[in-house]
Amino acid sequence: MEIKIAGAGIAGLSAAITLKRLRKDFDISIRDKANSIKDKTPRGVNALRNYAENIDIQKKYLELGFELQNFHPIKRQIFLLSNRKYFDIESTEKPIFYTTIRGIKSSIDDMLLQQAIDLKINIQWNSTFKKEETDIFATGAELYSHCVGFGQHFTDVEQTDTIYVLQNSKYCPYGYMCILPYSNNEATIVLGKFNLDHKSQIKSDYNRALQEIPQFQEYIKGASVKYEVNGVGNYGLPSPTINGSSLLIGERAGLLEAFRGYGVHNAILSGYAAGIALVNGSDYSTLQNEMLFQSVERGLLRRIAENELNLSSERILTELFDRIPNNVSWEIFRSELNLLEKELLGKIDLPILMNSMDEWNRKYPFSIE
Ligand SMILES: Cc1cc2nc3c(=O)[nH]c(=O)nc-3n(C[C@H](O)[C@H](O)[C@H](O)COP(=O)(O)OP(=O)(O)OC[C@H]3O[C@@H](n4cnc5c(N)ncnc54)[C@H](O)[C@@H]3O)c2cc1C
Fold this sequence. Notes:
Layout: E1 2-6, H1 10-22, E2 27-32, H2 37-40, E3 44-49, H3 57-64, E4 72-74, E5 76-80, E6 86-90, E7 97-102, H4 108-118, E8 122-125, E9 136-137, E10 147-155, E11 162-166, E12 175-182, E13 186-193, H5 202-212, H6 214-220, E14 224-233, E15 241-242, E16 246-248, H7 264-280, H8 284-309, H9 313-321, H10 330-347, H11 350-363
Helix pairs in contact: 1-4, 1-7, 7-8, 8-11, 9-10
Flavin-adenine dinucleotide binds near residues 31, 252 and 267.
């Protein structure tokens, strides 16, 4: 059987690897319109939520058949709120996050590409398939973006064990800014906005926050800017197929987690689900739902509550600040935050929330080719 995949990003490579690992006789081809990994993804640090899974995600990826290494564990997180309020929380158990490098040189992109090459998957850069002959679309967010990110990648930072999150509507309304450190004294600072009405100011808001927030100033003292990072994201209620036949995976399916913008994990899992569906002849939509729906739905609900119903993350964290000490363990912080979110979301009339979700889907019919 011949399978054609458009897009050699995380999702496309994950699908190809799954297919070829399980069916050596399948003829798998990927085409990507970019010239190379370097051309399409700038070097930068991404965070993966380890806390959101029951098992350690490194272990999970290995179990699913992906040879991924070089994850950097993070156990401490600092939330910076307005009026000098902050949370400084640390996990007493497993790492809260792993950070990973994107782009070239020991990156997650490189590792998946190498595994695909070793499996003799045919990869062509600077080319694409005709739409009608494509079996799997893994072409990312470009066509249907709903959010935007801008930041810088630094070398020579001193501290690499803590993720900082700035949750302050003066600088990042409908989004947040964060420091994502990696080993080798590298870190990426990035501002994400999940409302495109605010897209134009992103660079100036980023620079203003970098200059005005003392913790950011302190963090980049002595560090050097190496690259700019930027891009767009596609989130929504995920769309598994076009016309019931070609499969959509990763951000092409709208699988960016809508609240914080985590897309790598969903790209890997949806690629895996598409591969399994084609190998077993099972239904991809069902598999995608089983593996991803809960977390995608929760993210979208929180995003709609923030964007459309004024229930911002800053507001929730500020309320939490009045309820619990600011240096509790990560586990207590998380469980109190969940309770408070539930309470505040519960105050929003459910039909209003669901209407907003329907309205959202009418406004953004991103699955139409
Ligand atoms: C600034 C920024 C920061 C981010 N930070 C994080 C983070 O910390 N954690 C996290 O989990 N996620 C993060 N994300 C999201 C994450 O990068 C994406 O969700 C993930 O890369 C999606 O993978 P994908 O394979 O679906 O798409 P992509 O990685 O976008 O890959 C799509 C590929 O398709 C190719 N392509 C496009 N059109 C065509 C075509 N017509 N034919 C052939 N090829 C085509 C492109 O060249 C590209 O190689 C961030 C995104 C941005 C922009």
